[in-house]
Design brief:
The protein is mainly alpha-helical. Helices cover 86% and strands 0% of the residues. The chain has three helices and no strands. Helix 2 runs antiparallel to helix 3.
């Protein structure tokens, strides 16, 4: 499911958003503090929701 979400996200985004998303992902991978992980997850989810909303409108 996550791979599908990522693929959809990559297909419909511009380069800068894609880079920011990748940056958040790498931060997530190296982040061991749970509170920081939750914050990152929130940012990633918001990115995805915003992108979906923009491309449906």
């Amino acid at each position: 499911l996550r791979q599908i979400k990522l693929r959809v996200f990559y297909n419909q985004t511009k380069q800068d958003t894609r880079l920011r998303y990748k940056l958040c992902q790498s931060l997530w991978r190296h982040e061991r503090d749970p509170t920081h992980r939750v914050r990152l997850l929130y940012v990633l989810t918001r990115f995805f929701i915003i992108q979906n909303f923009l491309y449906k409108a």
